[in-house]
Amino acid sequence: MIVNSMSESLAIAILAGGRSTRMGVDKAFLRFQGQTFLEMIYNEMSRISQRVLVLVGNKDTKKFKNVLGPNASVINDSLPIGTPVGGMLTASSVLSEDYVGFIACDLPFVRSELILKLYHIAKGHSAAIPRWENGGLEPLCAIYRREEVEHASNAALHRGMVSCKDVISLLNDVVYVDIEDARSVDPELRSFLNINSRRELSNLMAGLK
User: Which residues are within 8 A (CB) of 77 and not within 5 positions of it... i.e. 6 or more apart?
Assistant: First the structure.
């Protein structure tokens, strides 16, 4: 798949509000080959959408703008939930595009070709979410219909449900995409390489991943 145009109906929301407890430092600002993880994701997603939003929980937005530039759209979560659902609800309420791609900030190698593939699959449905053979989901490397995810996030929070899986369970028409199908645009599945701990970071730097 060739990335050669912007989609006016697709926005991207990068979720960078986590506390990075296992890592000990903010994962958004970890560096690989001269770039922060945040820059890597932001620049890659800017290839396919003119509306890239960064959700930072209750963190200082200036720190993120210092990395991305003053014109970057960086906002705090509207509710202090402490889970990605806060960012999902905030993004879906402020954006106007039909679909939103939610991307975790610890996926530095996410490919725009994969997100476009998921977007095209999601059209006409509530979401397109990658699923591993064991049933595990990748909810923060996925595409959602904006109005539906806003409604589902609000409904979940009203019931005291605060996880991404809770929100997904309230969507009406989710397309689960076999991870193996992603190999057509990401042969090594590096888009799903999640850097959560210092050990995983060390392995990455050592070229073991």
Answer: 17, 55, 56, 57, 58, 86, 87, 89, 90
User: What is the crossing angle of helices 112-122 and 37-45, to 10°?
Assistant: 50
In single-letter form, the type of residue at position 103 comes to: I
Mean pLDDT across the stretch 141-164? 96
What distances in angstroms separate CA 39 from CA 7, 164, 170, 197, one per listed residue? Answer: 21, 24, 32, 19
pTM metric for this prediction: 0.91
Domains and CATH numbers, the chain: 10-204 (3.90.550.10)
Q: Residue 155: enclosing H or E segment and its boundaries? A: helix 146-158
Distance CA 104, CA 118 (A): 15
* pLDDT value for 27: 86
Record the tokens describing residue 161, joined without a space.
Answer: 């449900």
Spell out the residues 6+ positions from residue 125 whose beta carbon is closer than 8 angstroms to its own: 145, 173, 174, 175
- Return d(Cα 108, Cα 44) in angstroms, integer: 9
